[in-house]
Amino acid sequence: MKKFISVMASILALAVGTPFTSPAWSTEFISIGTGGPTGVYFVVGNSVCRMVHKEAAEGRKKGRKHGIRCAAPSTGGSNYNIGQIKEGELQFGVAQSDWQFHAVNGSSKWEGKKFSNLRAVFSVHPEPFQLIARKGSGINSWDDLKGKVVNIGNPGSGQRGTMEVLMKARGTSISDFKQATELTSSEQVGALCDGKVDAIAYTVGVPNGSIGQAIDGCGANFVNLDSGVEKKLVNDNPFYAFANIPSGTFYKEQKGDAVTFGVMATFVSSADVSNEVVYEVVGAVFENLDDFKKLHPAFTNLDPKQMIKNGLSAPLHDGAVKYYKEQGWM
Ligand code: GLU
Fold first, then answer.
1. Stated pTM of the model
2. How many CB atoms are located within 10 Å of the residue 222 CB?
3. How many CB atoms are closer than 10 A to CB 170?
4. How far, in Å, CA of 157 to CA of 310, rounded?
5. Domain region containing 167
């Protein structure tokens, strides 16, 4: 008899699909591209996933389910993430506002590879472009980089791209350096403190543990970037702004304010990702924004009204627009 029932059940299941598990959503996996494991993007991506999974768990209790399962692996950074979203390998990613702009407009590094389907979702924290010199390297200004070992960053990272833009604006070429290395964000501070490189560049939120390791841990110094060249970059480009890292605030060994230019970290996706998924991800973040803000000190000042417009140059994703309109923010 028992056997008969189970046979009947499987015939029934075949005939009507699987009647015993009928979620409103089938499970959908999303991947968020981040940056190096010691950066802030990695915290952004994993914090978004945490909120998505929290909403899924709470939704199950209330009977309103979404089946999104989220992962946020470490990656090469901004331009890598945008490229993988374009390929459909990632659904979301964190990217600097300058590279969001260039990808959607087909300019700079994205010339001839315009990604029209790139969509903005929201912006997160400001990211100053930080040039840091090794203690004893004698580097106090951009011109002092001549003849030194400079880490220009791994291809695909935001800082590599922004470094190339700055080098071009400054009329500096790789051959002006003794050597240009391509270490990742998580390798470069160790190399700086070990004396293997003289200077590093990192576009990253403040504070950041690896910058702290350089400034406080091995006596490195910020190099100001506030000459006429940077002023022109800021004046000519909507995605740049001047930034100040005040001394005695984030890094206790920092001597004097660091003045430089910077970008916004932004959360991006593709028009190919469904409105439903983007709507749920955005809802999970904004409904839990107070919890989200506690996950990294760089998130302390996040404000929804700013997050839905600052640093965004690609069109907003329709799924995000739906949520922002419901909140009365648009
Ligand atoms: N801005 C860097 C990039 O685009 C990443 C910074 C971070 O990981 O927080 O590659």
1. 0.92
2. 24
3. 17
4. 21
5. 128-263
The response to whether residue 159 sits with its C-beta less than 6 Å from ligand 1 reads yes
Q: Is 143 helix (H, G, I), strand (E, B) or coil?
A: helix
- Cβ(233)–Cβ(227) under 8 Å? no
Place of tokens 């000459």: 227
Do 140 and 42 sit in the same domain of this protein?
Answer: no
**Same structural domain, 192 and 133:** yes
From 83, 88, 78, select the one nearest 39 (Cα to Cα): 78
274 with 225, same domain: the answer is no
Residue nearest to atom 8 of ligand 1 (CA): 39
pLDDT digit string, tens, across residues 1-56: 344 334 334 434 444 444 444 455 678 999 999 999 999 999 999 999 999 999 88
Q: Is the CB of 35 under 6 A from ligand 1?
A: yes
Nearest ligand 1 atom to alpha carbon 205: 9
Whole-angstrom distance, CA of residue 31 vs CA of residue 37: 16
